[in-house]
Every structure is written in structure tokens, then in C-alpha cells.
Design goal:
- The structure is a homodimer.
- By secondary structure, chain A is an alpha+beta fold.
- Chain A folds into two domains: about 170 residues, Ribosomal Protein S5, domain 2 (2-Layer Sandwich), CATH 3.30.230; about 130 residues, GHMP kinase, C-terminal domain (Alpha-Beta Plaits, 2-Layer Sandwich).
- Helices cover about 35% and strands about 30% of the residues of chain A.
- Chain A contains ten helices and twelve strands.
- The longest helix of chain A has 19 residues.
- The two termini of chain A are about 15 Å apart.
- The relative contact order of chain A is 0.18.
- Chains A and B meet through β2, β5, β6, β8 and α6 of A and β2, β5, β6, β8 and α6 of B.
Chain lengths: ~300, ~300
């Protein structure tokens, strides 16, 4: 067993349209890289943090060490770890930045401990890391980052997560505008109550999206990528949102929505060629308005967290 | 083309647990029988009605003729039909009594007209019949009665219905207590707003139930047959509801809920043997409390409306 490993933890899209708070998917290539090393003392220490500012190095506040600590507490282990973090997902992008770090940390530590837990079992510990960053222990980013693919949280209490089959040709386009949307603001703007009729419309789409993914019915996926509850409220926080989404739809996207709590906006398309056209169309809207952006085109990452060289 | 046909239109369970207002399934054997005959004049007439009282014979009020009229209006036809109705589903049972009649009527008339419409296209006309009986044009009973199987209403506007694969071994138990629950009361008792957190819990289960059915994952079906929104409110209208449901669960049911707006209560089980034990346990609760009941054990009917001899 190697005493030091390097882990890739993918970025993720959560709040997949109608699947607010329950559906998430993992991206390829874009994600955090962590180097995790067993140490001889009982401490968890954070070494270098590259690629992002204002990430705490205090192990009681850093999501990586908090997540690993939760795992160690669960098995009563006093093992020490040293973690170096290379962040390739900007915090506050809506692409699960803290979730990737949490997921990668517990994935790596678990490997170094001889795999006492399955990836699915690691979700609960990664959630504790998420909690350190965002107050609430969400699973809709950490689950796809760990497991890869398209995941659904059936229930938080008890925690019950399952993976959904999806068509190979389903490609994500993500546009990350260089503006800040605070997750706390995005949460505050949501009303605690919703109309029953809207909730019913939403779960009609949730059922259809689930069925469309599993049966590879792109028509059903296209018709069900709707969100009558969160998008109308949160999209006002994102500059050019409607224009950007419309441009993506006009370019052939099946649908799209806010990624996480934004400001990243995602679209899903059938095939890479369409996804690229969608990306060009969406980013052109931002360029025209003088807003800097990053653009990612990605298959759904089927693997999730993995060891790299 | 025969000028007179006999149609069987199955009873249905709507509001399948978390799938309130969107999910329904068709039952075997129990259902309405209609005899539909082409006539030489332009009138729609209702002949005998067997098996239920207080069903209107006025063709502007009877669900069968109202539904057929909607279909005829759509194609500009003046064809007359005479309909005899044998009701084997009690109105007010929660098993889609008026929906079966509406579905069977348009199915039969469509056959006699040379099938201008698919079964799925007939749903919109059957909904007009439903509207005559219950003010609102619901599709969650007429769709499974027409199409058979397990159906989901993704959207009402535009109307978008799809069929979901389900495991062959999934068996329904239905207990119909001889008490009256007015649909109007059952609707009134629902609040127009729900907590966002409850809505999210519900659509987590909706996604899981859809996936569980399609992938034949009985564990997932069992965990997702939950309803945090409607059951807690409506179940108080049904005598011995909690005790009956618990007895069913103790006997091995995967889950259960109120069928439609009640008072029928359904359970779903893996295999006929379990479904029968569940039926015995549930009906024993009613017997103990001196409440008369009817009990049905049924596979999911894959066919829907059909011509019989």
C-alpha cells in the first residue's frame, strides 16, 4: 500500500433542472487534484493550496481535513494525513468546488487506510466537509464527485443515494461567468413554501427525466429538463441568464439551468458537436456583454474520484 | 367493421404514493363493461346502466357521451352512438370509476369509427368525460385505463404522458371500505402550498420510484413508496387507515397509500402470495372494526381498454 497518493476529484453539476437538491452529475477533466500522504503523528495538516485564495489551512476549517476527520472518528482511527490541494474549480462557481475537495480527500484517505469504506459510504463523510464550507450538509455535489455518473439523492434521512443510467451521447456544456453569486444569497432568495401545483409539475418532470435518462429517450429528456420552482427565482442573480439560455436552446441544447447555486449555467445536448455549438452560442452572449467567462464541454464522467499519477 | 362492440375498461389506481396527480396504474378483471353501437341518427344516447345508481342518463351529463362528443367534435363527425353501461367499479371508490367509463366509451367509439386516434390521443377526450364528473380534467386515471400498465403524466399543458416499464411480479392489493369519501372533500383538505423541503423529499422519491420500476429494483421501489404531502392530510378521512396500512406492511407489502382520493387503500407487493397475505391482513382490520369492504388482488393490467366478446 502506497503511503502517498494523488487523487482527481471531478467538478459536478448539481440541481439538474427539475431535480433541485436531488440530482447531480460529474464532469470530465475539470476538477480538483489532491496529494494525500499518511503521516506518523495523529495530526491532519493542510500543506500547499494552489489555484484559489481564501481557502482555510486550519484543519478544523478546511473541508478536506474536516471530511477526513469525520471518517476517522467513525472508525476510531488516529491516523494522521498531510494534504496538498490543487484547486481547478473556483470556489463560488456553482460547480461543487468544496464538494470536490471533500470527496477527493475522503476518497484518498480511504484508499490509504485500505478501503474500509465503499465510495457510497464515503458520501456521508464528504458531506461533513461540505458542511464546513456551506453550513448545510448537502450531498448533491459530493455524491456525483465520488461516484461519478448521474446520481440521485432519494432521501437525506436516512441518506439514500442511487446512480441512474444515462445515454453515452449526453454531453454537458458549462459556462462559468466571472461574477460572484453567494450561495447564501442564492439560498435566501428561495421561498420556504411552493404552490402544490408547481410541485406536481416539478415531480412530473423529475419522473420523466429519470425515465428519459434510463431508457435513453432524448425526446423525454428534452421535454423534462424544466424547472418551474428554482430557476425563475434564482436566474435573476445571474447576468444575461435568459439570453444565454435561449442562445443555447437555439443552438440545439436539450435544456439547461443554473449549475448548483450559480453563477455557472449548464446545458445538456445530444452529441459533442451540438454541445460545442451550444457553448459557442452561450459564451457569445457573455462576450457581447463584456463579461469574462470559462467554458467547459464535457461528457458525463462515469468514474468519479480516482487515483492519478 | 362491426357496428356494435363490447369494451372492457379497467379500474385504476391513481396517486401512486409519491406520484400524486401524475402516476397511475391499471388493474386486471375489475372494470366497467360498455356496449357501444353505431346508430343511424346523430344522437348520443345512454341505454341501460347496471351496477350503480345516480349515474346520469342525460347525454350532456353522462361521462361516456360527453367524452365521445369531445372526440366527435374534434373530427367534425355527426355519428350517433348508443351506449349501455355495466359498472363494476363503484363511483366514489377511488378506483377511477368515471375514468373507466370515459376511457371505455372513447375507446369503443374510436374503434367503430375505424381508429382515427391512437389510445394515447384518446386520453384528451376521455379527460373531457372526467371533467363532467369531477369538474377538473384529470388524466391520471383515464391514461392507465386506456393504455394499461403504469403511466406518468409529465405535463398537463401540453398534455404529455408516458408509460413506465414495471416488474412483472409487482402485484396490487386493493381494499375498498364501504364508506363514502367525497372527492370534493378530499380535494378541499389539501393545502394549496407545501413546504419546499417536503416537495424535494417527494420528488426524490418520485425519481427513485420511476428508476426502481424501470430497473426492477424492488428495494428502491420499497424505499420510495412514500408520500410526505398528501397521505398525512387525506388519510384522516379514511377509517382505520393507519392500522390497515401497518397491517399490510407487516404482512410484507412494499408500500401503499390511498388510491385516488379514497376511500380505497392500495398496497404493492412482490409476488401474488405476498399480495394475498397483505390483502388478508388489511381487510382483517376492517372486519374487526365492523366495516364492510371489497378486496381485489391484481397484477398490473398491461393492456388497458380492450374489446371483449
Amino acid at each position: 500500500m502506497s503511503e502517498k497518493i494523488r487523487v482527481f476529484a471531478p467538478a459536478t453539476i448539481a440541481n439538474v433542472a427539475c431535480g433541485f437538491d436531488i440530482m447531480g452529475l460529474a464532469l470530465e477533466k475539470v476538477g480538483d487534484q489532491l496529494t494525500i500522504q499518511k503521516t506518523d503523528d495523529e495530526r491532519l495538516t493542510i500543506g500547499s493550496i494552489i489555484g484559489a485564495e481564501n481557502i482555510p489551512t486550519d484543519p478544523t476549517k478546511n473541508v478536506c481535513s474536516v471530511a477526513i476527520q469525520a471518517m476517522l472518528d467513525h472508525i476510531g482511527s488516529k491516523q494522521g494525513f498531510h494534504i496538498d490541494i490543487s484547486k481547478n474549480i473556483s470556489p463560488g462557481s456553482g460547480l461543487g468546488s468544496s464538494a470536490s475537495s471533500s470527496a477527493g480527500a475522503v476518497y484518498g484517505a480511504n484508499m490509504l487506510l485500505g478501503k474500509p469504506f465503499t465510495k457510497k459510504e464515503l458520501v456521508q463523510f464528504a458531506m461533513e466537509g461540505e458542511k464546513a464550507a456551506s453550513e448545510k450538509a448537502h450531498a448533491d455535489n459530493v455524491a456525483p464527485s465520488l461516484l461519478g455518473g448521474f446520481t440521485v439523492i432519494r432521501s437525506y434521512d436516512p441518506l439514500d443515494i442511487f446512480s441512474v443510467h444515462y445515454p453515452e451521447e449526453l454531453i454537458a456544456t458549462v459556462v462559468f461567468p466571472a461574477v460572484e453569486v453567494k450561495t447564501a444569497d442564492a439560498k435566501k432568495i428561495l421561498k420556504p413554501e411552493v404552490a402544490l401545483s408547481d410541485a406536481i409539475a416539478q415531480w412530473g418532470n423529475v419522473s420523466a427525466l429519470t425515465a428519459g435518462l434510463i431508457t435513453e429517450d432524448f425526446g423525454l429528456i428534452e421535454r423534462s429538463l424544466q424547472d418551474v420552482i428554482v430557476e425563475p427565482v434564482r436566474s435573476i442573480l445571474i447576468p444575461c441568464y435568459q439570453e444565454m439560455k435561449q442562445a443555447g436552446m437555439d443552438a440545439g441544447a436539450l435544456g439547461g439551468n443554473i449549475s448548483g447555486s450559480g453563477p455557472s449555467v449548464f446545458a445538456l445536448s445530444k452529441g459533442k458537436e451540438t454541445a460545442e455549438k451550444v457553448g459557442q452560442a452561450m459564451s457569445a452572449v457573455l462576450a457581447k456583454n463584456g463579461i469574462a467567462y470559462e467554458l467547459f464541454i464535457s461528457k458525463i464522467n462515469p468514474v468519479g474520484c480516482e487515483i492519478i499519477n
